[in-house]
Amino acid sequence: MARKTSTDYMREMRSRLTAAGYVKRELYVLPENADALRRIEKCLRQPYMGNRIKLEEFMSENTNWTIDALRSALVELDVVKSNEIELTLVQGAEPSLSLVMNNFGGLPIIIAIAGDQVLVDSVLVYAAQVKDIAAFNDTVLRSRDIFPLSSIGIETLPNGETVYNMFGALSAASSLTVIVHEVFTLADNVIRAADAYEDFLTADPQ
Hints:
alpha+beta
């Protein structure tokens, strides 16, 4: 079975939106209004979380999340109960949370806690997919302002594969709403980055 890549998740998300009755519209706005437009787009699809965000009282001020506490809070959210997000606790030396974003084509996201930070991470592309590493790196470095709250880095996986990750980091004392917003922002950014960088990539990693 072929391994799925970020472009596959992008195509699946588009197919799902089309099947749900959404239509694509191309708009031209001033650069400083790009973030506002993305927020409006989310509202026009469905209310962005709205009063479905619960359990703010789960966190007390200046208290850092643990993986177990964060999992307990997330499983109570409607987006998890409705299977919009599939949530799994991954045990290991450093436990983490695995999220499958079903409204984003099944995009996988990992949440980990490292010291005073919550890290939200997803594989963007495999290095083996990239046709021209130098050209791709140059484009990525010049697009740092395009994807709010997210950064792109390179990581070598335990199996030796090199991947480009898109990730965000925030305080481990952040509210649940802020963390959920970070997750959805990262998912949106990965899909948009896959679209923006598609010409640099082969169909499948080698």
